[in-house]
Amino acid sequence: MMDVSRIGFIQGRLSPQIGQKIQAFPGPYWKEEFPLARSCGFSRMEWTLDQEGLFENPLLRPEGRELIRELCRENNLMIGSVTGDFFMQAPFFKAAGSIREELFDQLVAVIEGCAAARVPILVLPLVDQGRIEDAGQEEGFFAYAAKLDQRLRAHGMMICLESDLPPEKLGIFLQGLDPLLWGVNYDIGNSAAFGFDYRQEIPRLATWIKNVHVKDRVRGGGTVPLGQGQADIRGAIHLLEACGYRGNYILQTARSPQGLHAEVLSQYRDMVISYLGEIHGS
Question: How many structural domains compose the chain?
Fold first, then answer.
């Protein structure tokens, strides 16, 4: 039988947009998303962390985590992952000296916050501003990533990397990491936008894929409503399941221009349910 609790959403998708950004921590609205998620039938959320106001985010404050736990209990909601946009916005491996150390310490603080909140997966985007662009940056990434292994192991956590590398290069890149502590966040929409073939990517990366973002994009362009871009959402989900994936599907979908965020997100959730139901039954 299909487990609908595997389908979640990125925090903020049920709130008004912040400064017209497609994705941001919904500062004024974050508490209201919990009962709204319950009313829409969601039981899973992926938290969002931005560089701006990072240490004011409730996930990184003891009293904030207590309130998050209370809201989760009241609304039967689970936070199983955190998307670290802060890392993309200010990657430590592109800085030097004391700034690099400061940014790495921020990452450590986020890991500790996730562990305290019992969130097992931290997604780090190596895309856009967080893209590794040369050998020096790659060396810097691996040198500091190695320092995280013991901490991740102690907390029972995993970091999932989201990358714009082709599957062959990403496979080689991943060889330098412990597969028990590091994985891949597979973004269906980004794959289509980069011009990759999911039929090659997913089998190549299957053992590494531990979290999935569901969205649609046009090739070389931005996010569009599901079914209006180049992503084969149904085909990708079917292949992921065929390759043994049993993790979460997190809706990182287009926003509603009319502000009908709950209605649109629920429609997207039902689409994913239908695709999974074709495989596992309803």
Answer: 1
